[in-house]
Design goal:
The chain is globular. The strands form 3 sheets. Strands 1-4-5 form a 3-stranded antiparallel β-sheet. A two-stranded antiparallel ribbon has the order 2-3. The protein has a two-stranded parallel sheet with strand order 6-7. A hairpin with a 6-residue loop joins strand 4 and strand 5. The chain contains 18 helices and 7 strands. By secondary structure, it is mainly alpha-helical.
Length: 437
Amino acid sequence: MKYLTILLFAATVGLCACQSTPSAGNGAGNTPDNKEGDEDVADLAPIVLERSDVQRFRGTEMVNLLERMQSQERDDWVYVRRHVHPAPLPPAEYDDYGRITERNYDWPPRDPDDLNERQRQWMSYELWPDHIRGLLHAEDWDSDESRLRLANYGRMYALLHEFQTRQAHGSATRETEYWRQFAESMLAYGKDGEELLVANMIVALSNPLEDVCQRAQDILVQVGEPAIEPLCAAMWTMHRQMIAAWEEELDPDTGRRVRTEFFKTVGNPNYNRYIADTLYRIGPRAVGQVILELDNVVIAEGEHKGKFVGPGWRYRKFFIELLGRFGDARALPTLEAEIDRVIVQEYDEKALAEGKVRIDPRGTDDANFLFHDHLIQALGQMRKPEALRPIIRLWKMDEFHENTAIAAVYKLTGKNVRNIADARALAEARGVDLKGE
């Protein structure tokens, strides 16, 4: 009989299966290369590392490297920078819409144990968080201010590593207190600490354990407004993370339990719901950013230029529901605009598995109905009679919205209607312009 226990959580950090030794012949020794004066770093060979555990690298080895940025010796700073400078050739080039315009080499690698030189360089580069790479690529990378920030990032990643790899307290009260102290320690590093804390608390929302998610929510709510934009950005994703766990089974010879530790990838199906609930708890300050997300995340070109096309309605519905919960009339134009700018499409899963994009007509019809039902419910909470216009329009588009529409009209006006004709009469009596519905 097996027993499964989740021990800890950690952000997905692109774990790669490669050797954990420095790359031979690349100058990646344990001490910095000596150089005279202020020679251009670009003239020195980049340092390429081969590591299998990105989280461990960031929480230990990277911490020690970044500590060198406060050394009195410039050679130490140069040694650190050579891990990311000059930047290697990326796997692909992208346009402004995130579409690949040119592939330079295969990524991810088909065989992580057999990498070519470019793949090894890119994998080494990806060990480092992009914000740290950015600081080390900046023109003022060696200024006192930049070096202090980099050293502080090292200290923060050490805190994160301890936080993510320790075993949780058995007492819920002690565990909550530990989270509070961890948050305070991160916030003590100012804006950089705040941003790193928020990012990791958002990742924690993907944990399958409810108490972990609730503690992360509490911290994000305490951070408040600075967490709003990152939370909205995260709403467009489906997070996955690595869970360290152990299995126990009885050894038939000794009768003892044998433990095996392993990592597995899991996700939280309520991830987006936790984000929405967190934004709601932060309060009306989130309304403006939520509206901005719906008004600006429009990616189609060509025939559907300016439209949002595809199955992404699943993400938009969370923003729509959230605006309904706030009941802020400022959201009415945005919600009404969703009717025309979102083209719901569902794709045939078998075709996708074969690398083909084929629309699933039945799935699309069902999804479109659900999306419009979400809109009607949100519109019914806008506290403005003009919301009757889009409600009636959606009702007219599909008579099966009747129950949802009647409930929305009642919530909006306190009046019962039996059909679309009644709803139109009520709208006209409230002075609502129904042109275009």
